[in-house]
Design a protein that fits this description.
With 110 residues, this protein is of the alpha+beta class. It is built from three helices and four strands, in the order ββββααα.
Length: 110
């Protein structure tokens, strides 16, 4: 088992998870983070830190698409080890459904 970041992170990108990760397995896109599944040690410390509840075990059903997105973009986006500042409007998008189709960006983070 490993953890993945779901579409709940899109446009929120709170980043509370980043600094608690002991193996630095988070990668930053323009409007979300992903977890590199081969680097994650399944410790789970990131899961309760996420205000958007966007981190789940990859064994949860219904997240196969996002598991593949995490794997793909962890190879393309820069590694992030220090939490940045969430978007000013992050709270406005918290809990919104269907964010992947509406807002996902393949661009790397800053």
């Amino acid at each position: 088992m490993t953890y993945i970041v779901t579409e709940a992170c899109i446009k929120c990108k709170f980043m509370d998870c980043v600094e608690v990760c002991p193996v630095d397995c988070f990668y930053e896109g323009e409007n979300m983070l992903v977890i590199h599944p081969d680097e994650c040690i399944d410790c789970g410390v990131c899961e309760p830190e996420c205000p958007a509840e966007a981190i789940v075990p990859d064994t949860e059903t219904g997240h196969e698409k996002l598991a593949a997105i995490n794997r793909e973009y962890a190879l393309k986006w820069p590694n992030i080890t220090v939490a940045g500042t969430p978007p000013d409007d992050a709270e406005d998008f918290k809990g919104e459904d269907g964010k992947f189709d509406k807002y996902f960006s393949p661009k790397p983070g800053h």
